[in-house]
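Run DUF2264 domain-containing protein through structure prediction, thanks.
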Amino acid sequence: MTNQFKLFLFLLLGCFTSSVHASYDSSSQSGNEERKIWVNTLVKICDPVLTNLANETLKTNMPQESLDPKRGHQFSHLEAFGRTICGIAPWLELGPDNTEEGKLRGKYINLTLKALSNAVNPKSADYLNFKTPYQPLVDAAFLALGILRAPTQLWGNLDKETKTNLITELKRTRCIKPFNSNWLLFASTIEATLLELTGECELDRLLHGVETFRDKWYVGDGTYGDGPQYHADYYNSFVIHPMLTETLLIMEKHHVKGAEFLPTQIKRFTRYAEQQERLISPEGAYPVIGRSIVYRVGAFHALSQAALLHKLPKTVTPAQVRCALTAVIKRQFNAPHTFDAKGWLRIGFAGSQIRMSETYINTGSTYLCTFGFVALGLPSTDSFWSANFTPWTSLKAWNGEQVEADHAI
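Sure, done. The structure for DUF2264 domain-containing protein is below.
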């Protein structure tokens, strides 16, 4: 063996060892340090959307990346805004304070209020389209869910005119008939939001999605079909569990018949979150399966929401969810070419990978990734953030540690 070859093997081993150890680096970080990573990443993602819409330059400045530019993406701006609000709202709801993070929240609360005012103002250059079939139903629902998640800092701080305009735009979506899939829950979520904000809703439209998933599309062990057929993708997390759970919570609050399904749904939701935590590898990777995979860490919307609502299973501690999701966030958003030169998200899973997307996906669509950050709505004192580093299930299992057996419900 030549000295040169020995040197090559030594360098190769060093590179391999570094890459393996890199997956465990977060064990040296405190929950406070990891929270900073989440906050800084979320703000980096959301700033171009909120700043431009607040300044009425969203339509002028947002790029239009897509596999199908001929299709035209007249709804991409509503997609970007609705999804951004849905993801950032729980963090904003903590409100401003005198800490560095609290001052940053105050800045983005103000930007969001201005952006929301422009989005629903027919006189604004950035007035968004809520009524033309079919896409606005989707992103009006995401926006509505964001409003539900920040009742004090968003809804409570809107001026009377903007509140009226927002209600008008949400009601415009009633002309859009949802497809027989997860889309039913977009209609349910909008009606639940209208019920919460105004005291009235179209009851049939509210209940149809809930009853269909409850009575027809549950396939077992915490998973629903996306329509009559099961789809191997992350739509149980992107949409189904979060929206079904939030809608039922509003129904229970307003004593709507059918809310008695909530305890069963919570049991299924918790089980699904348990499964999601096990999907995250020791390196912060997860299976690249199904459509809309370029929504990145938004694939863990349900897991992050379960942490936010304190609905994690007994087998999963909040801190291990934090550590697992931190590993995913660092891996995806540190990938080269994730953002363009002006800070807008590029289409991709871990970088710029447009061929991984579908033709319905555009620049605005990618902001669904913010959904993975909803656990930032937990204050820094919550055990999700305050507890020491805790290895997640796959990290423990592949490290030879004891892990409890997994059981279906």
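The CA atoms of residues 98 and 104 lie 10 Å apart.
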